[in-house]
Amino acid sequence: MTRSADRNHDITRVAVSTVIFTVRRTGDAISLSLPLVRRTRDPHEGQWALPGGWLDISESLDAAASRTLAETTGLQPSYLEQLYAFGAVDRSPSRVVSIVYWALLRQDDVDAQVAAHAAAGDAPENVAWFDATDLPGLAFDHNDIVDYALWRLRNKVGYSRIAHGLLADEFTLAELREVYEAILRRRLDPANFRRQAEGSGTLIPTERFRTGSHRPARLYRYNRDVELADHGPLGVRA
Amino acid sequence: MTRSADRNHDITRVAVSTVIFTVRRTGDAISLSLPLVRRTRDPHEGQWALPGGWLDISESLDAAASRTLAETTGLQPSYLEQLYAFGAVDRSPSRVVSIVYWALLRQDDVDAQVAAHAAAGDAPENVAWFDATDLPGLAFDHNDIVDYALWRLRNKVGYSRIAHGLLADEFTLAELREVYEAILRRRLDPANFRRQAEGSGTLIPTERFRTGSHRPARLYRYNRDVELADHGPLGVRA
Prior knowledge:
Chain A is of the alpha+beta class. Chain A has helices at 3-8, 61-73, 107-120, 142-156, 159-166, 173-184, 190-199, 224-229, 232-237, and strands at residues 12-26, 29-38, 48-49, 52-54, 81-86, 95-104, 127-131, 203-210, 217-222. Helix content of chain A is 38%, strand content 27%.
């Protein structure tokens, strides 16, 4: 179409990468966690990087994100959402535009998928989980990508998506608040949080209660109508 | 990295396209409008398409969006925001991943830029403005792209961004409501709209008033602190 394109189109490559967030509980502490893959070749051999790979000529961006995530980590989220395209000229030794996807995955789903691969003897190699807010220096611009994903998670993700992506089907408001505290990295006032969450229209109270060492706490589930409406025309087509 | 990439990376190309929204007033009617460019070569010769072009090897995605928009339409928004990457396998005869940007542009800025190009004798050719909600069949998947941009505009754009992007520095709540009505394509209750807009924290009342045939209406300006905080880590780095 333009002279520069004729000269250059054969040396810009398209890759996909994926940021998978889950919450991990260690004793009383809850933290946001994501899987990384250790690179086994240059550039950045030996460094940790986001799961991903090259876009194949015959697959959509969404399919490439799912395939490369499964190939590198064995994980299969129920859906992946496109986050952003990163294309700085100097982000790789060769010119690479990376389309980045993200997903929220419940810890019990992660555990089940990891256990299934271990049982089948095809556990992925070179994968480890890291605290999302305390990462080592990653390959390429992947620290910047994680920072951007964390910012989007902190700013743009509503109650229903958090509940759907990171909690069991039914959860107490205290459990939901703990997840928010892990994401935001600060304590939230329980009464204020309850008022906002209940007023969001995205949570449905059940008649069931969590009992245990504390006084019984009502269980909630998220409102699927709200969640499904959030995908827009792309969701309908996908 | 993978065999498929070695085989295929030389035939996936990266393009950028841009959706520019403005509001146009015709008499009492206000409508959402966007510029399209008539294609002068195959594929889809003669059809209208979004402004855009190929990514150059030596420019960032943001720079490519600005450059190709200026080359095809002469328009220079104060900023462009990345919207989404479209990469369906069959969206073009060859494999093309398009990174789509969008911007909101005030009508007076559009008029000033168009007039400047006319005066300089370098007015762009093959450009026309269309009602965003009543488009002809566009080249490639560009109708889908506009639908997605409209959906994002309807769902995700807050009071301050609308005010900043589509209105003059100072505006009445009725003017802001009219813009919302053009975007949402339905009438809004003035009292409810006033309550929500005033409660949003993104509008600042001034001590000035619009006078004319109606009773004086207070002028507002948008809260730049809120708007600037919305760009996240990418905005800070850019």
